[in-house]
Amino acid sequence: MPPAQLKRRHKLAFLAFGVMVILPIVASAWYLFDRAHDRYVSYAGFSVRTEEIGSAFELLGGVAEISGSSSSDTDILYKFIQSPELVNRINKQIDLREVWSKPGRKWANGDHDPVFAYNPQGIAKSLFVPGDANNPGYIEDLTKYWQRMVTVYSDSGTGLIDLEVQAFTADEAQTIARLVYEESSTMINRLSAIARDDATRYAREELDQAVDRLKTAREALTRFRNRSQIVDPSASIQGQMGILTSLQQQLAQTLIDLDILRMTSQANDPRSTQAERRVRVIEDRIEQERKKLGIGTSTGVEGSGDENAFANLLGEFERLSVDLQFAEESYKSALAAYDASLAEAQRQSRYLAAHVNPTLPEAATRPDRLLSLGMVALFSLLIWAISVLAAYALRDRR
């Protein structure tokens, strides 16, 4: 066989290797070790805890619930830390654009770090378009860069959240991590307050209705007493019945005396006339008293159309008393239900507990230059190898 010779495709493969592997590695090494600024990382770890406090009976018995974590709250908090809302809140307290733009983003300036510094234009665009150095960018640009500098790790099984915040100074990294923890705690407290309000809203509405019903019943009973000038119709009826009984006894005694007079005297005896007059007066008075009571009239018709009759007043008083009693019972039940729901809502409180407070880094750990350079070399080599294999496959198909 003839000896192997260096052909054109071999030269192209070596040229591609130099362009696709050697050149990116050299450029990356130069940038990482010459222009890339050091970044400090502040660590923080926290979780959402749900504290369930036992009732008074449980506490007396020595039984209390153990606090636990809520996975749903952890998922909510994970999304909140990556949201533009949190970025906007923290940006109002500390100018994130200024903090993350300190290395500068101009390629022409050798002291700037346009790759890792905040650049609302993007790295690729800033290579060819000078742009405005004073352009702060939109909140979406800041949120996108936030996701590069703030890393959140969530464990749904344990409910733990780990946070890594990068900045170009140690103090600023710790400050941002502390603000993230404070805003997250505020958000969890707000969710806990909303949950308590939802748990007690229905019971509160029922209590308000019971209070209004009780006020209406008491006002109606007060108006009745003012109109009738009677505090308790039952007591007044008892007194009125005593008067009626006394009149009936007097009538019976007078009728007996009249009969005796008729048997022992003449028909025109003045005493008989006087006794008959007394009988009529007593009967008229009994009729009037019976009408007041509303228990019957001389015509034999039960009841009375007079609204001031004691029977009608007593019926109205009993109806108002029943309404008042029902309103009082409803109020007691609604108040007990509200107190129970409020106590149940207060038994379960959520709060943010930090198991690792935001740390103050002492040494810069980013960028990891060797790791980054190794990743560039690996992917460059893979891209070059795949490209060469694809080219040879196409050549063999011809």
From TrEMBL:
Cellular-component GO terms for this entry: plasma membrane
InterPro entries reported for this sequence: Bact_polysacc_biosynth/exp
Entry's Gene Ontology molecular function annotations: protein tyrosine kinase activity
Transmembrane segment boundaries: 12-33, 370-394
Keyword Transmembrane helix attached: yes
Keyword annotations from UniProtKB, A to Z: Membrane, Transmembrane, Transmembrane helix
PANTHER family in alphabetical order: FERRIC ENTEROBACTIN TRANSPORT PROTEIN FEPE, TYROSINE-PROTEIN KINASE
Protein name in the entry: Capsule biosynthesis protein
Source organism: Roseovarius gahaiensis
